[in-house]
Amino acid sequence: TAFYAKFQGNLFGGNVGYTLDVLSALRIKRRPLGSYKWITLYELTDIKEVEDINLDFKDITPLKIDYEYALVPVINNVEGEYVIQQIKPDFQGVFVVGQEKIFHTTLNINTCGDILPQRNFNSSTANPLGSKYPYVFYNGTTNFDSGTLSATYVPFLKDVCEWDFENGCKYRRELKDMLTDGRPKILKDDDGCGWLIAVIGNSITEQAQGHPYNVITSFDWNEIGNLESSNDLYFSGFINCNLEGS
């Protein structure tokens, strides 16, 4: 028999019912193209009916680099065959990404159009007697980026392809509320760089550049994790599972 279908009032041929009996979960995974390390971005569990496997997942964490995404069935708690698709996100400007809101701009980004972070690490210098050169000691493994982001934020009207400067004040207020909510953020730009960050300091500053609509908002930030770590993304609230744990 080449094909045997029960149908039973539908067009699934009885095959989906059998799959649901053994399907433990569905996972969405991602890795940079050329990397061997997958991280699980989303896991769908509690699958009982066909309607439960309808997925509407949006990845808000990727950088502007080539990725491979995989849809992975988990059968009796064992991963099945990976269905892989290569994708490269395409965007312009800078994004500040929170768990519920995303703010984007291409206007007045640090006056040069780039984020330009600094790298921080701990070291100490000792000047021994009788030596021309000092000794340099590196204290711990601290190694992270930090910087200041200054830019003009206003809503963008996609239907007419225009910036809505008249509603810029409300938009900036929403941005400042998000920046000061005490939760991790993702900062990324169109040259492929990105960071998992915390907003630091005691204020978000604004300065008008010769016109009330041309307002530059500035804040300081520190890198606090790795965007390719499922552990860091999970505990920052950007993914719903931590299967890799690193």
Question: Describe it for me?
Answer:
The protein is mainly β and 246 residues long. It contains 3 helices and 14 strands. The protein is flat and about 80 Å long.
Task: Provide a quick synopsis of the model.
With 246 residues, this protein is mainly beta. The chain has helices at residues 15-22, 168-179, 230-235, and strands spanning 23-32, 39-44, 67-75, 78-79, 83-87, 94-97, 102-105, 118-126, 135-151, 156-157, 162-163, 185-189, 194-208, 215-225.
**Into which percentage range does the β-strand content fall?**
35-45%
Low-confidence stretches: none
* Apparent shape: flat
How much is the average pLDDT? 89
Helix and strand content put the structural class at mainly beta
Helix content: 10-25%
Secondary structure tally, helices:
3
What is the distance, rounded to the nearest whole angstrom, between the alpha carbons of the first and last residues?
A: 48 Å
What would you report as the Rg, rounded to the nearest angstrom? 24 Å
Spatial strand arrangement across the major sheet: 7-6-12-13-14-9-8
N-to-C SSE string, H for helix and E for strand: HEEEEEEEEEEEHEEEH
Q: Let me know the largest β-sheet.
A: 7 strands, antiparallel
- Number of beta strands: 14
